[in-house]
Inverse folding.
């Protein structure tokens, strides 16, 4: 679970159909009892499983609110200049032999090739063991920075301490703090 990180759920007429009714109330309770009721959002669309314009616009609103610190205002319309791959392009990506006969997901490679061509993206070209090792070292450093691996706890910190525990309608709620 992502608590206390803000989380948005987009549900539709697929395997997510009952999430809002069956699961989301518990998620809402957890966020509420931890003082973050506004940090969780669930919207249902009576559509198939896709990420069409209304869902993207809702996500823009959510990201603006939580990543950019913008106040929650009405959902803005997606700009016309946003270019996405049409479904026909994505559906036309095929492999020979078919994906299920391949040892790895070759469709992802084809999607990457289209992205490279359309967006002029150039991934690292690695031609030997030495280049691979150098690239790997660079990526490990970047990943450690991204994940905060080198962050240090205060010397007085000895781990979390449970300060409260309660049950509410079958939901166990525990509160912890660092010493």
């Amino acid at each position: 679970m992502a608590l206390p990180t803000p989380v948005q759920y987009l549900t539709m007429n697929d395997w997510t159909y009952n999430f809002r009714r069956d699961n989301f109330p518990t998620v809402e309770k957890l966020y509420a009892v931890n003082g973050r009721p506004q940090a969780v959002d669930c919207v249902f669309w009576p559509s198939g499983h896709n990420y069409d314009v209304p869902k993207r616009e809702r996500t823009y609103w959510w990201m603006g609110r939580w990543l950019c610190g913008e106040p929650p205002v009405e959902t803005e319309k997606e700009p016309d200049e946003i270019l996405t791959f049409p479904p026909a392009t994505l559906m036309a990506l095929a492999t020979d032999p078919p994906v299920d006969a391949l040892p790895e997901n070759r469709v992802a490679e084809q999607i990457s090739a289209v992205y490279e061509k359309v967006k002029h993206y150039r991934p690292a070209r690695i031609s030997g063991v030495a280049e691979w090792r150098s690239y790997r070292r660079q990526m490990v450093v970047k990943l450690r920075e991204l994940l905060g691996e080198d962050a240090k706890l205060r010397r007085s910190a000895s781990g979390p301490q449970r300060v409260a525990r309660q049950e509410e309608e079958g939901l166990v709620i525990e509160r912890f703090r660092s010493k």
About this structure: The longest strand covers residues 160-168. Helices lie at 19-22, 24-33, 53-66, 87-92, 106-119, 129-147. Residues 1-79 form one domain.
